[in-house]
Design goal:
The complex is a heterodimer. By secondary structure, chain A is mostly helical. Helices cover 63% and strands 0% of the residues of chain A. Chain B has 14 helices and no strands. The chains are: A mainly alpha, B mainly alpha. Chain A: Its main location: nucleus.
């Protein structure tokens, strides 16, 4: 009976049937087979009509009705095809062939449907991602070539967008969780192949790579290698997309992730907890807190996962052969005859890229520096960017002769009395940036010339010159004039001279910024020697291990509250998070466990060992040395004992006393990877503001302060004009003869005084 | 007193302008000048009248959204067939007509059937030429989701079998056989949940099946001309039917599938013997059982079931 009932409501349209088949594939097998046969016959008709040709020309005729049906059926079959895998083995293959071989005859709607169906089949795991890729890539290429794109009704642009979107979605879905390296590799191979072809189809490879890089889906050196190949491509468009990738892909990616993290609203966990304490405790509120805690934990977990799963290597760091790449880029795109095909902005980005690579990896591309000379004139467009990339490309391993030419040119062109102050400032600032990276790039005479500008009237120029002076005070003060050297540097020099030491001039080829030892350790050793008796075991002393409270308080935020009852005893286990407090966790553990026990060290093995060390150390320190040189001091101190935070604090204090703080600053500056900010080169300029700008600033200051302004012309409640207001507007001649007006003149002095007094009090009351 | 300037301006708009003799009427201030100057002279397109009966212009009416218009167009063409049967018109006409087999409207389908009949009566070669397309559309109609169209597909098939049965059987015997079986609800893997057909439908389907099998499998119909001598000389003469080597699929576009079953089937239905083999591969016992049910019920259905059964037994 039930069967009869079902067949009575046999569906008359495909969507209905689809629903039924999905619910119960077994009993609708027959209907499915019928529809599949229908699909097959439609497919055959389509193939036939392709031959006869008559139909394909008039697309809006009978074919279009068929097309509608056909696309409907394709959608139907691909929806239910996972229910009948045996019957539809050839279906995906057919779709693939249809769209690959006959895409010229297929109308757009059908193509779209086939593509979405293929995506669906991929999602249902009927076809593999590789198969889908092999379908999409040729199509993408086919529709980005001129011939196909220009034909009528091809909808090339829409199709390209569709395919591109699908490709990204596919790769994204395949790479969530763990990376699908096999798929990535095959896709990257396809990208490489695309780039090998001479025409501009490679643009898709770069687009895809860039997008995937931006989303953090691809972050390996292979994808960087794709972009390397793109950047070296002959085609301007592709080359530029490759170059732009290296210049701002990482920034893009970071901003992308920031956006993602910003979008989640911050939960005020503390607030909820507090409210729960005060308000009545209901189940709903309790659940609210529980949920909040859960989401918080999840978020924290996600954050850490993201941090682990995705390594933020900048693209330039992942280059396999930076030297070769930089050389090729320079010789192919900038230096040769080919350079003409790039316009100025593109050339500048090329310069930026090359100089960034040279700076980061300390490469040697000697032609670059003479190449810059051509563009180093104040009238050159965007010259600050060029100056910035000049500075960026310098590092201490470049022969000073090459750099000196460039510096000389900048000094000649930019820094003279005859130019505007901004120009001079830009020149001086860029020379400073260059010298920061390669101190030998300037000779003594030129430097002393340039420092003369510190007394310039223009603020920017003076600042730039002073910054140059302060730089050389640190790097090699002997190159400066005597009066410029400053107290510390000249005292050091004098002392060195007195002791007959050779002052340490910067040498070519010497790498700076490497960490050797701890600055000022000899001072500490000295100090320890002097005060050795006062504090015996300073290592084991708790007080020395205490760090500022701020750091400690971080730990409790994401963990739940724990009730500690006063009577019971607890085994205290240290969290891993606690151990982050200090640099050496081993020490910390023993120490942390002791926090409430007063120096009860008897059962700790570690401390025994330390005691022995201490004894050794004490023996060492018995033999006093009047002065220590840093190396021996370092060896002695660092090898025998572990420096406590208190030690570091003391060290810091001693160093400031000595006036050797400058060394800290120098270390930080040695990094070549810091970007030179082209906008900052000009220095601070303050033009006189126009009236509008001044007004604007004034208005900015008045924001949110309306209640302090005048109430003139403002009404509290909306109303029409009052009689009083109307009276004010009346014609003067009409009012002059009124009694009420004339009477005022005839008022006695006393009355008039009264009225005035009233008026004043009224005025005073107005505000309240 | 003297009015202010503003008030004068106000009244000016409402005063009547005096008309003067010999002077043109002043134009309103908001009049739009529509005159224009052009360098070329344009002549209206000439309409060359009704005397040229151009039927091809009516072809597009076959796709008209109104079913009545489609039906009437088909009927006019049917009247014209006599005059245009030997013209170039026929191919475009039929290629446009054939898709109407799956038309939703019953009237249109019956008009189309009449048209086919008419064409077949005058010149069955036309139908033979387009046989391939016809078969495809019949197939499509057989599997259509709307049962009325399914039902009519059998009628179309019987109509076509009348004029180009030989050709049809050669091209798609197996496919059509399967289609008819599934229409009747007799297919192999069909369980007992066969859709109940009413008697009229069953009669039509069974008659069509009878025709198909008779055309396909009875040697007597074809072998009348096939003598031993002809068989040997035949291959050097012009073949009787168009595209004799079509089954080799040398010039057709086809999707390459790993194991396309129809390539084999098409090859095997070229002659009557092969077709008989195809028929025997079917589940004949089931068919006989079904036929027995109809025979028991009697009436028209019983009659045609009986004749079908006889035919089947004769073939075995």
């Amino acid at each position: 009976m039930a069967r009869k009932g079902r067949s009575a409501i046999l569906p008359t349209n495909i969507v209905l049937l689809q629903n039924l088949v999905k619910r119960d594939p077994g009993s609708y097998h027959e209907e499915f087979l019928q529809q599949y046969a229908h699909y097959e016959s439609l497919r055959d008709i389509f193939m036939l009509s392709g031959i006869t040709g008559g139909e394909s020309t008039d697309k809006d005729g009978a074919i279009s009705r068929n097309v509608e049906q056909f696309s409907e059926l394709i959608g139907f079959v691909s929806q239910v095809c996972s229910c009948f895998p045996k019957e539809t083995t050839s279906f995906p293959e057919e779709l693939k062939q249809l769209i690959l071989n006959h895409h010229k005859q297929i109308p757009f709607e059908l193509k779209e449907r086939i593509l979405t169906s293929l995506m669906m089949l991929r999602n249902k795991a009927v076809i593999t991602a590789e198969q889908l890729l092999q379908t999409m890539f040729p199509l993408l290429i086919a529709y980005s070539t001129q011939g196909n794109a220009l034909s009528v009704n091809s909808h090339a642009k829409e199709l390209r967008q569709l395919i591109y979107k699908n490709l990204i979605a596919l790769l994204k879905s395949c790479n969530t969780g763990s990376k699908n390296q096999k798929l990535n590799r095959s896709t990257q191979a396809l990208c490489f192949n695309l780039l090998d072809e001479p025409d501009s189809q490679g643009i898709w490879a770069t687009k895809l790579t860039r997008e995937l890089w931006r989303r953090g889906i691809w972050d390996d050196s292979r994808s960087v290698e794709i972009m390397v190949q793109a950047a070296l491509h002959e085609d301007v468009k592709i080359a530029m997309s490759g170059v732009m990738f290296f210049l701002d892909a990482d920034k893009e990616r970071e901003s992308n992730f920031e956006e993602n993290s910003d979008s989640e609203e911050e939960l005020d966990l503390e607030g909820i907890r507090h409210r729960l304490k005060i308000n009545k405790k209901t189940g709903r509120r309790g659940n609210k807190l529980k949920n909040a805690v859960k989401t918080m934990k999840k978020k924290n977990k996600e954050d850490t996962q993201q941090g682990q799963g995705y390594l933020n290597f900048s693209a330039i760091h992942l280059l396999r052969d930076p030297q070769g790449f930089a050389e090729n880029l320079f010789s192919r795109h900038l230096n040769g005859k080919n350079a003409n095909k790039f316009d100025m902005e593109q050339k500048i980005s090329l310069m930026q890229l090359i100089s960034r690579m040279v700076g980061t990896h300390k490469l040697i591309v000697l032609g670059l520096y003479t190449f810059f000379l051509k563009y180093l004139t104040p009238k050159q467009r965007n010259v600050t960017q060029i100056l910035a990339s000049c500075a960026q490309s310098c590092h201490e391993l470049v022969p000073p002769e090459n750099l000196q030419v460039m510096v000389r040119k900048i000094a000649d062109e930019f820094v003279s009395e005859g130019v505007a102050s901004e120009v001079a400032a830009a020149g001086l600032n860029s020379i400073r940036e260059i010298c920061l990276r390669a101190p030998l790039a300037i000779d003594e005479i030129l430097l002393q010339d340039l420092t003369e500008y510190k007394s310039s009237k223009a603020k920017g120029v003076a600042m730039a010159a002073k910054s140059l002076v302060s730089l050389y005070r640190e790097v090699s003060p002997e190159m400066l004039k005597k009066k410029d050297r400053g107290k510390n540097a000249s005292m050091e020099l004098q002392e060195a001279k007195r002791e007959g030491k050779i002052t340490r001039k910067p040498q070519f080829g010497e790498e700076r910024g490497t960490v050797e030892g701890i600055q000022g350790i000899e001072l500490l050793a000295q100090w320890k020697n002097d005060h050795g008796d006062e504090e015996q075991d300073d290592e084991n002393n708790d007080r020395n291990w205490e760090v500022d409270d701020e750091e400690d308080s971080n730990d409790d935020i994401d963990s739940d509250w724990v009730n500690v009852e006063s009577d019971r005893e607890y085994d205290v286990e240290m969290d891993s998070s606690d151990s982050e407090r200090e640099d050496d966790d081993e020490k910390k553990k023993t120490d942390g466990a002791e926090e409430d026990s007063d120096l009860d060290l008897s059962d700790k093995e570690d401390n025994d060992a330390e005691r022995e060390q201490d004894q050794d150390q004490d023996q060492d320190q018995v033999a006093p040395k009047s002065t220590m040189d840093p190396e021996t001091a370092f060896r002695e101190l660092a090898s025998t004992r572990i420096l406590t935070p208190a030690d570091f604090a003391k060290l810091q204090q001693l160093r400031t006393e000595e006036g050797v703080q400058k060394l800290m600053g120098l270390q930080k500056r040695g990094q070549n990877e810091e970007l030179v900010d082209s906008a900052g080169l000009i220095g601070p300029i303050k033009y006189k503001r126009s009236r509008e700008e001044r007004l604007q600033r004034v208005m900015e200051g008045r924001e949110d302060r309306e209640k302090f302004g005048s109430r003139k012309g403002k009404r509290n409640t909306p109303h029409s004009t009052t009689n009083r207001e109307k009276g004010r507007k009346k014609n003067f001649m009409m009012m002059i003869h009124k009694k009420s007006v004339q009477g005022k003149r005839k008022m006695s002095l006393k009355d008039r005084q009264k009225v005035l007094r009233n008026h004043i009090t009224n005025q005073k009351k107005k505000g309240f | 007193m003297s009015k202010s300037r503003k008030q004068k301006q106000k009244t000016q708009d409402f005063q009547k302008k005096k008309l003067k003799v010999g002077k043109p009427k002043a134009k309103a201030s908001n009049v739009t000048d529509t005159s224009f100057v052009s360098r070329t002279i344009s002549v209206r397109n000439q309409h060359l009248g009704e005397h040229d009966e151009d039927f091809s212009k009516r072809l597009s009416l076959l796709k008209h959204h109104n079913s009545t218009v489609r039906k009437e167009t088909l009927q006019t063409f049917q009247k014209m067939i006599q005059t245009i049967i030997h013209t170039r018109m026929m191919t475009p006409l039929l290629t446009q007509c054939i898709p109407l087999m799956c038309d939703e409207s019953r009237q249109v389908r019956s008009a189309l059937m009449d048209l086919f009949d008419e064409v077949g009566q005058y010149n069955d070669q036309v139908l033979k030429l387009l046989c391939k397309m016809l078969v495809l559309y019949v197939n499509m109609a057989m599997t259509h989701i709307t049962s009325a169209i399914q039902y009519d597909s059998a009628k179309f098939l019987s109509c076509l079998l009348r004029y180009c049965g030989d050709e049809i059987c050669r091209q798609a015997f197996a496919k059509l056989l399967m289609g008819l079986f599934s229409l009747l609800g007799w297919s192999k893997n069909k369980s007992q949940n066969a859709r109940k057909l009413n008697a009229n439908q069953a009669v039509a389907h069974m008659d069509t099946l009878y025709e198909l099998i008779r055309h396909g499998c009875q040697e007597s119909l074809q072998a009348d001309a096939d003598t031993e001598l002809q068989a040997s000389t035949n291959q050097y003469l012009i073949p009787e039917y168009p595209q004799p080597y079509e089954y080799l699929k040398l010039f057709t576009r086809q999707l390459q599938t790993r194991d396309s079953p129809f390539a084999v089937v098409d090859l095997s239905t070229q002659d009557a013997g092969a077709r008989q083999r195809v028929l025997k591969e079917q589940d004949l016992t089931n068919i006989h059982r079904q036929l027995d049910i109809y025979i028991k019920e009697g009436g028209n259905a019983g009659k045609s079931a009986n004749s079908l059964k006889k035919l089947l037994e004769e073939l075995q």
